[in-house]
Amino acid sequence: MLTSMTGGYEVNEQSVRRLDAFFRADAEMGGDVFDWTVNWPQVFPLIRIAGHSRTLSAAANKDAASIDLDHLPDLDFSYFDPWFEVARRQGVTRFEAHVENVGSERWQWALDTAFGKGRVQAGTPVASRVSAWIFRELKRHAGRQGFHGFFAKISDEILPEDIPSYQFTAKVAREAGWRPFTTVSGMIPRTAAHLRAMNPLCDQWQLSFSGKDAFLRLLKQRYSLSESTVPLETKWHPYANGGAERTWVATQVCGRESATGIPTDEIEQLDVLEDGRLLRSSGGSPWGNRKQGMAFTATDILSGAVSLSTRDGRDPKEHRIDLKIVRRREDPMGKVLVAIDPTDELWFYGGPVRPDLLPYHRTWTLPLMALHHNFHGYGQWAFYWWQDTSRIVWMDAHNRIEISPAYCGFRDGWRDAVLFHRLIEQAGRAEYDQIIGPHAAAALRVGVTRDPTYPSERRDVPAVTSIENANDLVAVNGARRRALEALTNRVRDRAK
């Protein structure tokens, strides 16, 4: 988050020095994204109306009607130019901004700050138009400052039921000239219907590391679909986490050795019926649930579980519970279920709440896997967050950066990814595949293994495609040596 690095929204000598040190450290590990993640109600008082000394908020407070909603003025973001200059100097020139759901209560607060309380209502056509104007003006200013890309990150790790609100805001971002996206996790990267719904308004697929394999399979494999209703005869356990009331959970509902026998990776859609009637479905967790007539599947199903609350609040064993399942199976005579636009970018991200505790070899893996999958980029869950523990770098009282093993892994992994990318450019992908691949002769073996972005103490860790022996530094150095030798041979061949 930008302001966690600057220490707030005031642009002064101290914030510029801090930002310069952080961006220098970020650039050392390949970082090139200027992430405009801000609280807009604190930004509007600092943005001037072009050609005037008044800020947008000052004009709204003094005379809201002076801001003509039908003829909106140009905005001047130059207050933040010292921060923009620091970013450019360090090569951090890809611009991304967090875009709040423009129909939400949080965005209403921003609209009140910019135009006067209650003058523009979130979720209305007027709100969409003036929101697009705000982001269009930001893009115009940043573009003049030498930035490019302009991707708009809408919310974060949305649930399946949030897709319509994502689409609503993505249309506003697209109208303003931005490329919309969000972080894609949970069941969304594992469900063809969700991906098809998002695709027209998603220009960057920023996948959770644990979800990338399922997403890539849906883009490449052929499947057939079948639908069935399965009686769920299992034991229900009371669930009270977070103060949840009249909520139950059944474990081992899905999976090869479960009540249904259906592997979780073959589920395209799962609905729960109580006495033949469909329960409302939520993609979230049952934690703290107090609603009745709800089924929680999208999160729980990854572990093979289903949680629910009946309509009358009674134990599910007093009702007939059925599962309505759309099953997806690989079939050479079937069809590919998902296609994305050729201009879309593929990214992944990952990391635990305590990224500082990740060992060197695990963060080293991420840049290499981005290259291996031919992705456009990768992100980490946190670089320098507000909480001291959600960081991989720290700053002392003299604006000097202190680094962690996790940071060193990202930095060295980036440098190695650059080396192997150069190898692919000069000698071809086949040469790279001899060094990093799934076969026994490869110096670094790619296979299905524990997700490296999860903390070491976690047991319920998903299996993903990654580098199996990344913790073997002898093998890592051997791979580097083979790449350098291959590149040296190419130089010698050209010199002959």
> How do the strands of the widest beta sheet line up side by side?
1-4-5-6-7-17-18
Helix content: 25-40%
Question: Got a strand count?
Answer: 23
Quote the beta fraction: 15-25%
Straight-line distance between termini: 52 Å
Mean pLDDT: 93
**Continuous helix count:** 14
Give a quick summary of the entry.
With 496 residues, this protein is of the alpha/beta class. It has helices at residues 2-6, 13-28, 40-43, 56-63, 81-89, 105-115, 125-144, 163-175, 192-198, 212-220, 360-372, 405-427, 429-435, 473-495; strands spanning 33-36, 48-49, 75-76, 94-99, 148-154, 179-184, 204-208, 223-231, 237-239, 247-250, 267-274, 277-278, 280-282, 294-296, 306-309, 321-330, 345-350, 377-380, 393-395, 401-403, 436-437, 444-450, 463-467. The protein has 3 domains: 2-221 and 338-401, TIM Barrel; 224-330, no CATH class; 419-495, no CATH class.
Describe this entry's structure for a reader.
This protein is an alpha/beta fold. The protein has 3 domains: 2-221 and 338-401, TIM Barrel (Alpha-Beta Barrel), CATH 3.20.20; 224-330, no CATH class; 419-495, no CATH class. Helix content is 34%, strand content 22%. The protein is built from 14 helices and 23 strands. It has helices at 2-6, 13-28, 40-43, 56-63, 81-89, 105-115, 125-144, 163-175, 192-198, 212-220, 360-372, 405-427, 429-435, 473-495; strands at 33-36, 48-49, 75-76, 94-99, 148-154, 179-184, 204-208, 223-231, 237-239, 247-250, 267-274, 277-278, 280-282, 294-296, 306-309, 321-330, 345-350, 377-380, 393-395, 401-403, 436-437, 444-450, 463-467. It has a 7-stranded parallel beta sheet with strand order 1-4-5-6-7-17-18. β9 and β10 (247-250) form a beta hairpin. α2 runs parallel beside α5, α7 (125-144) crosses α8 (163-175) and α12 packs across α13. The radius of gyration is 25 Å and the shape is globular. The mean pLDDT is 93.
